[in-house]
Amino acid sequence: MDFALNDEQRMLQESVSRFLTTNCTLDQVRGVAESGGARDETLWNELTNLGVHGVLIGEEYGGVNLGYLEAALIAEALGATTTPVPFVGSAVIAAVALQAAGSEEQKDAWLPKIAAGEAVIGAGLTEQIGRRESEGIVVADGKLSGKAMFVLDAGAADAFLLAADDGSLHIVEGDAVSVTRLKTIDRTRSVGEIVLEGVPADVLPGSIDNDEPLLTAIDIGRLILAADTLGAAQTMLDKAIEYAKERRQFNRVIGSFQAVKHMCAEMAAELEPTRSLIWYTAHAYTAIPEEARAMACHAKAHLAEVGQFVARKSTEVHGGMGITDLLGLHYWFKRIGFNRQLLGTPELVREEAAAAQGWT
């Protein structure tokens, strides 16, 4: 049994990471965040050329037909640089749902466009996880009514994948609805609110009386968010170590102080085991499907907690500099915080994990 990445997976991760490290600068991230834009167009086009948008899409639809582990490795690289482009909603959740439950006509219409970077599909599944202000979405005579909150990739979306109360999945054209952009702590992503009043929708036939496509799309989304948090937390750890080697107090670098050493060691000790948790979860979806749902919940919950711990400790190591916009550490801090809330908080997904394992 191989417990490491193979050569192709390492090459994929290195190529995407190298590209983003060189081309996704802090100024680009800041520009998108401050302008309220949906994505950086230059990065979007280059990532299209790298095949990032089609990572989970079959070759017959123009994708590269890789697996969930490869998608997680890409997400880790995107999180490491807080890349301001749509990925989780369109390239992951929508692509998974369409291939699992879409008709051939729906697949032919949307999957090639997603893979080619020609279309973005926002994902509104939040009402199936936990509601606050929404009564959910109901379907009647092929039309949807209700409210979808925190729709992922909403700002750049050409269409939306929405889940109704009965678990069925529907595609709604972007020009058929009005989208209200929601301001969140993470300005590197666009999320929105959609209000529906008898809006025509195209149901994914495989999701009728079958909640498996919905649950799979949610859980793969959780896996990808966990991987994104891993990448962001690793960058915060690396920046803390780098800063500790340079910042001087009392004529000594602060990295020589035992308290600072302990903080960096604690971050590394908490973060490193989560990488194997991500890999195992992705592996489970293809090799151990009976464990997949519980593992996705555990990965999402655990990375949310560890990511929050690393974000706080890294900021403490940086001292007053850690909260300045000049350093930009807050972009990673906020991305980790927002990932924690998306598709279920740790408490909620742990409860789902307990149910999946028959404990409740």
Question: What does this entry show, briefly?
Answer:
The mean pLDDT is 92. The chain has helices spanning 7-23, 26-35, 41-49, 68-80, 88-101, 104-115, 212-246, 258-287, 289-318, 329-341, 346-356, and strands at 121-124, 137-140, 143-152, 159-163, 169-173, 179-182, 191-200, 202-203, 248-249, 252-253.
Write the layout of secondary structure elements.
Blueprint: H1 7-23, H2 26-35, H3 41-49, H4 68-80, H5 88-101, H6 104-115, E1 121-124, E2 137-140, E3 143-152, E4 159-163, E5 169-173, E6 179-182, E7 191-200, E8 202-203, H7 212-246, E9 248-249, E10 252-253, H8 258-287, H9 289-318, H10 329-341, H11 346-356
Parallel strand pairs: 1-4
Antiparallel strand pairs: 2-3, 3-7, 4-5, 5-8, 6-7, 9-10
Helix pairs in contact: 1-4, 4-7, 5-6, 5-7, 7-8, 7-9, 7-10, 8-9, 9-10, 9-11
What this model shows, in words?
It is a single chain. The protein is of the alpha+beta class and 360 residues long. It has three domains: 109 residues, Acyl-CoA dehydrogenase/oxidase, N-terminal domain (Butyryl-Coa Dehydrogenase, subunit A, domain 1); 87 residues, Butyryl-CoA Dehydrogenase, subunit A, domain 2 (Beta Barrel); 145 residues, Butyryl-CoA Dehydrogenase, subunit A, domain 3. The chain contains eleven helices and ten strands. A four-stranded mixed sheet has the order 1-4-5-8, covered by helices on one side. Strand 6 and strand 7 form a beta hairpin. Helix 1 runs parallel beside helix 4. It is globular.
